[in-house]
Amino acid sequence: MNYQTYFQENREQHIGELKEWLSIPSISALSEHKADVKKAAVWIAEKLNQAGLENVKIHETEGHPIVYADHLHAPGKPTVLVYGHYDVQPVDPLHLWETPPFEPTIRDGKLFGRGSTDDKGQLFLHIKAVEAILQQEKALPVNIKFCIEGEEEVSSPNLPGFLEQNEELLKADVVLISDTSLLEKGRPAICTGLRGLCSLEVQMNTANTDLHSGSYGGGVPNALHAIVTLLNSLHDEKGRVSVAGFYDDVPALTPEARAEFVKQSVDEGKLQKDLGLEALFGEEGYTFAERTGARPTLELNGVYGGFQGEGSKTVIPKEAHAKITCRLVGNQNPQDILNKIETHIHSHVPVGATVTVTQLEKGNPFTIDPSTPMLQKAAEAYEHVYGVRPVFTRDGGSIPIVETFSRVLAAPVVCMGFGLPDENLHAPNEHFNLENFDKGLLTIVDFLGRV
Amino acid sequence: MNYQTYFQENREQHIGELKEWLSIPSISALSEHKADVKKAAVWIAEKLNQAGLENVKIHETEGHPIVYADHLHAPGKPTVLVYGHYDVQPVDPLHLWETPPFEPTIRDGKLFGRGSTDDKGQLFLHIKAVEAILQQEKALPVNIKFCIEGEEEVSSPNLPGFLEQNEELLKADVVLISDTSLLEKGRPAICTGLRGLCSLEVQMNTANTDLHSGSYGGGVPNALHAIVTLLNSLHDEKGRVSVAGFYDDVPALTPEARAEFVKQSVDEGKLQKDLGLEALFGEEGYTFAERTGARPTLELNGVYGGFQGEGSKTVIPKEAHAKITCRLVGNQNPQDILNKIETHIHSHVPVGATVTVTQLEKGNPFTIDPSTPMLQKAAEAYEHVYGVRPVFTRDGGSIPIVETFSRVLAAPVVCMGFGLPDENLHAPNEHFNLENFDKGLLTIVDFLGRV
């Protein structure tokens, strides 16, 4: 029986199982759901077992557990490590859900429910694909390992340590992750870049107390004036970051990379209209897709000081604050960038002010060359099933674990997503289009055969 | 009997009466004290009557009443209008008062109680001075009018209208106000300048929703970047206001005016230390006293937008806000200045942003030439009683009613204060040094004799 027929015959069974898993409210962020998170881990461990995987183990961590399983009976063949997560986002505002988040329901060929696309539904495909091959062939064409965590939605605090402590156990030739999305319906995409992240906060002080603008105004420094001057120095008038050395480790865009961005065919006019923008804005000489996918940023996320109430108040604030994050690309190192920004800040403090800088998060950027053989094989698998060559995209966001896998295991990471961009991840009415459920199963089977 | 003897003999009586008035909690800001405010008005009306004044009338307003009285039996002599207020500030935090705010108590030659110096105690001097002259001489050397309001601590909403509607009733050759302070103990001062005020708020918008800094960062405008750029354009790097025409109506400081500022003998080193400043800061070429007394300002009182919580948030804010006030001097017109700032703002909106400006308050600056005869007479009176020539000061704050009296009645305003700067106006343990109670009575009698 070919796989298409197999998956059709078992479709009801598979979706029924997935619905059962989606019914478990494994919200990792909420401590009252701790038992549910554990229940979801136990549930998937059992499924791995039933699928024919071996050495299934629930590893406890300081937070939620990590589920491991493997099937290592293809000597001389590559090893594939599948990563996914069984935890989900919180569900509020609950009243906006058309059907309850933990009562999975199919409407218009879409499976609605929290976790349906992020990431239970997508991860489930890998288990059912492996199960199918084992049932049909009694053997796998590769060695396979699963590493499934329950803390992705709370920034994976325990995963990097687990990877580092279990390097041998997790060793693989390729890491396979289905937690991203197609470009749009019918247009598969392989993510080849994720921006890194670093963040800091700045506090500017001028006096030991707020001062009356009548008695003191014009004769003392104002913390808001000082922070505005400092913050304005961070970009030039064209929006380029003015911090010395900021762009040092940003690789120039190759013609090949630019060609891939063109394929993403972003409609800038529509984007501008949808977001209610007067104009798009960014570095000269780059498209929107390039600016967000291949160029770094320094963004003010919050600025505050002084009076925020109704009307006016004649106060000279003694302090002011700014929250800053950078998105990083190429070889930019978050610690190096934080240090460069801090140096810039300390050399741009206006007269009469003192500044305190606190460094916060650090996450490396991830990039992989689309010509990497494993990515080419993934592209072939997509093309075989979807009938169209996938686009190699670069995403402006940050998924630090992708870089962590890539670095710790020294293996290429294939981000083979089957979601769609409008499936309401992290929002009410999250869903998974079952067309991609069906095609995803076939794509994974095809990919494992090609590895 | 000379006046010194007269006031000594009547001291206990006078202070007893004042204590009775201070016991009435006439807090104009709190509606639960509305009856107390009225009671304080009735009380002082009765005292004006007892002192020998005529035409005593309590004029109702939309808020608290205005008390009027006069004594117009000196044909061919100038008319003096005394202004003061019988309302007081709220008293919290109550637990910081050493004795209850409405149980007036004398300690160390100081009368403690809410309103003791601001302004019941100072106003009371004028009534007792007039009473003394009438008792001693059976006539006054001038015509005199009293205009006493109950809303000074809530920005005098009804006084300007009352002045305009009763121009004939209130017509005078000089307005006499005792609601300011000496420079320090033993060093009288006459306030010859108060800065005007205007205020506005600015809202900067870029998108119709907050955006994710991963997906959009680098490709869309950021309202915080836009407002920082705009606000930074308001001053040059030396702190001078960059708005075109801002200084057009600011008169240059004359050598005489500078000499008066020198006499205020501000200790800039001590000031810097007391306020915890890295440095004093302001327009080049001016002292602290000149910067705050004779130069205009444009101050940011509040700036806010985006995330203000703990840690970081990867948001690109869709809007940002700023609160701005200016202190004005000389011939600067608040409406003209607001218009100039608004023009500057509209011509400095960064690409991709839209701005909304809301104009708020407007108050004219007040200045009077120290050589004005009435001010010279006041100086002579002070010198006669205190043994030292008063300093002509200019205050950085704004008391809009002073300018209103000056403008509506077209008369010089003499700010003849008897408070001290450290008498805790608007704060717990407000008090009035009785040395200035005694000298104040004599100074007023002397002044009325010289007018």
Automatic annotation (TrEMBL), chains A, B:
Gene Ontology BP terms: proteolysis
Gene3D superfamilies linked to this entry: 3.30.70.360, Zn peptidases (3.40.630.10)
Originating species: Paenibacillus pini JCM 16418
Protein name as catalogued: Acetylornithine deacetylase/succinyl-diaminopimelate desuccinylase
Superkingdom in the source lineage: Bacteria
InterPro entries: Cyt/Met_Dipeptidase, Peptidase_M20, Peptidase_M20_dimer
Keywords: Hydrolase, Metal-binding, Protease
GO MF term set: metal ion binding; peptidase activity
CDD domains from the UniProt entry: M20_dipept_like
Domain Peptidase M20 dimerisation residue range list: 192-350
Keyword set includes Metal-binding: yes
